[in-house]
Write a structure and sequence with these properties.
By secondary structure, this protein is mainly alpha-helical. It has a domain of about 80 residues. It contains 16 helices and six strands. A two-stranded antiparallel sheet has the order 1-3. α7 packs antiparallel against α8.
Length: about 475
Amino acid sequence: MQKGLLMSLAAAAVLVTGCSADVLNVPNPNSPTVEGASGDPGALQLQATGVLRQLRGGLGAYITATARFGREGYIYSPNEGRNTSHYLIGLSGQNRLDPAGFAVGVWAGPYGNLRDIFNLKNVLTNNTTLSAAQRSAGLGFAKTIEGLEMLYVISTRDSLGAVTQINQNATDIAPFVSRDSVSRFILGRLDEGAADLAAGGAAFPFTLHAGFAGFNTPTTFAQFNRAIAARAAAYWATSGGGATAWTRAQTAIAASFLNRTPANAAAMNVGVYHVYSTATGDATNGVGQNQDFLAHPSFAVDVEAGDLRASKWSTLAVARNAPQGLGIATSIAVARYAANTTPVPVIRNEELLLLDAEIRLANADRVGAIANIDAVRAVSGGLAASGLTGASPDGTVLDEILRQKRFSLFAEGHRWVDMRRYGRLNTLPLDLTTGVNAHFIARVMPIPQAECLVRARADVSLAGPGC
């Protein structure tokens, strides 16, 4: 009976198809195309949501990797020594990281997302159902996230450079370009995004998640764009961009959501965040309640008495040792994220205040830089003023900026990058200095070996400088 019914339905389908002038064309949801997505009202929301989910996906690994490189903390997994050795020791005796090891993240994830952003921009450009303002708003969103993803890549690869070109054909291998070129690309893309957002009207053609509260319209999102541009310009300024880059940073931060007179912690924490939950299909942050994520002992020693930011770490009842003798004991744990669902900042006002202090110092506004420092000390640290004055040497003011960034931005992914930018990696603590397990301070994360092998097979001239 069932078999006969199926055969009858099949025959009917053939007859209907044969008699109709309209060809039945059902799109394959497992093989979406730009054309198909451009005509599907729901596809745009799914694409935007997917881009934000992928941006979020690698942040926990970024934070824990840069924490180890910057000697903010460790991952002491009892049964996995490579979470220590691959970041602090690398290839034994060679003072370099293993390109086939654990410390090669912040690569496949960002580039996978950059491919999705490329497709999103194509869909927005070809979508005939959107108004010009909606299309512009969507492109401004896409270009902002594109610039941010590239900033994560170059922050970890630095002098190795990176790939900025996404080709229509995903199998076409694009060349590496220099750090300077990557920085220019990032700022150019962010500036394009800002221009698109300015023409983006009152609303996006999709909804942003709760982490963008206060920054979920084209106008307010543009302030987020300018905050990321200020960070990117400051990074470039200390890596070869010089005065030109500092000027761009100054212009960008003036158009961001910087508040130089925060009244309380809430004002310091205004910003954009990744959000998490334990709901089915969602994800947790990877850093909250991670019993193996431990703080470097120096934080408890170096912090000023009474500094409220010491609550970002906590004292363990029993000190933990690195597995297999690969590190040193620590008696403090990371408490920066209270739970595995605690939002993780992309950028917030406290970072902008200290970034603005850098920018002001570089642009000969020492007094302005000190005012920012003292605001952070008072509001976030509960501390007295720094005692710095307009007569203090630039180097002394910079020391204090970096010190405040160390405690204010603990476990947010900045310490290693900041110390490298200012040529101070050699001041970070080396916990083991002799023997086969001697530590070193990594300057860059390597290009993954798999990436190098694919490039070598295709065209050896396309191999990156780290290959």
